[in-house]
Design brief:
9-stranded mixed β-sheet; D-Maltodextrin-Binding Protein, domain 2; 347 residues
């Protein structure tokens, strides 16, 4: 993995997504938030605009920033990987819906270790980020990897320094599989990391891991795939060490009842082939938007992406939502209404 690969990835995200807020025009549909889905939104937006539709200006500033932007009504939609609770949505007058499913993946910079060779468990990952396991030669890591010649070097953990839905998914998982992590640190978009260095955005974490030998970080799988990073396998709830990817992310959502609520966490699911650190990413919009024309265009964009963008979604390593889930989302969109009280058209 090289800095050049990371640069190309960042350029790909920027191809259709104009990250500078001042670049937006009155005709643009604006959104901000999670970096987790940014590669997919960029591909969708590029193809959507090429088909003669509106331009989408999405700023991947992190989930916490996306929530702040939509709360301040400075964008047409916000994006977060940490779903809001139903009572908070009701209080704010917002709706929330998932758009795609992906995975958070541990990445390392270890000389001589190829992608997928290193095996880790959730308990070991938690202890690394707690600072209890501080060297790659620790017996707990060696026991999982007897075939590898791991160096007797200090581990350099890397985490997200910004308010991050990727962090929320990662720490939600650690809280399920490491009791000390749950009691001492817990889950959140931003937590009190006991050790390590911070990077801003998935790109920031990837860049630090790429240049710091013996480091470990966590990023969304699309960044792993496009930047050719060295990832670790993680043991899932059924005891299997699985490869991250579209099928493993899809397996984690098997059996989830999206009709009851769409605020599901998909970490540590029981399916035999599930990636253990899977998560959906969500969009936030107002049920009574100030600019109904922009709200209509935003819904049109996400309808297009979820119904016509599946090939693009899976090419990046995400999993598309099942049709039944898309149908339930369309029913939810009936709550987005104009001044006349009628649902806003998006088809």
């Amino acid at each position: 993995m090289t800095i050049q690969h990371l640069t190309r990835l960042l350029a790909a995200c920027a191809t259709a997504v104009l990250m500078a807020p001042m670049a937006a025009t009155a005709q643009d549909i604006t959104g901000a938030g999670a970096t987790f889905p940014a590669p997919a939104y960029a591909k969708w937006a590029d193809a959507y605009k090429a088909a003669g539709n509106a331009r989408i200006n999405y700023q991947p500033i992190g989930s916490s920033g996306g929530v702040r932007q939509i709360d301040g009504r400075t964008v047409d939609f916000g994006a977060t990987d940490a779903p809001l609770k139903d009572e908070e949505l009701a209080r704010k007058g917002q709706i929330q819906f998932p758009t795609l499913i992906g995975g958070v993946v541990p990445v390392v910079n270890l000389k001589g270790i190829a992608p997928g060779q290193l095996r880790l468990t959730g308990a070991v990952l938690g202890d690394i980020y707690l600072g209890k396991i501080s060297r790659w030669s620790d017996p707990a890591i060696q026991a999982l990897n007897p075939q590898l010649a791991l160096p007797d070097t200090v581990i350099s953990p890397v985490f997200r320094s910004d308010g991050s839905g990727t962090t929320f998914i990662f720490t939600n998982y650690l809280s399920k599989v490491n009791a000390e992590w749950k009691s001492r640190i817990g889950e959140g978009t931003s937590v009190g990391w006991p050790t390590g260095a911070g990077g801003r955005g998935n790109i920031g974490v990837a860049a630090i891991v790429s240049r710091v030998p013996n480091s470990i970080g966590y990023v969304e799988y699309a960044y792993v795939k496009q930047a050719r990073m060295t990832h670790a396998l993680v043991q899932n709830a059924s005891g299997a060490f699985v490869e991250p990817g579209t099928d493993a992310f899809r397996a984690a959502s098997t059996g989830v009842d999206w009709t009851a609520s769409n605020a599901h966490m998909l970490t540590h699911q029981p399916a035999a082939t599930a990636w253990p650190i899977t998560g959906a990413t969500f969009v936030l919009m107002y049920a009574r938007p100030e600019n109904t024309a922009h709200a209509s265009q935003a819904l049109r964009f996400f309808h297009w992406g979820m119904t016509q963008g599946e090939a693009m979604t899976t090419s990046l390593g995400y999993a598309a939502l099942p049709k039944s889930v898309v149908d339930s989302i369309e029913s939810l969109w009936a709550q987005v209404r104009g001044p006349d009280g009628k649902p806003i058209a998006y088809k």
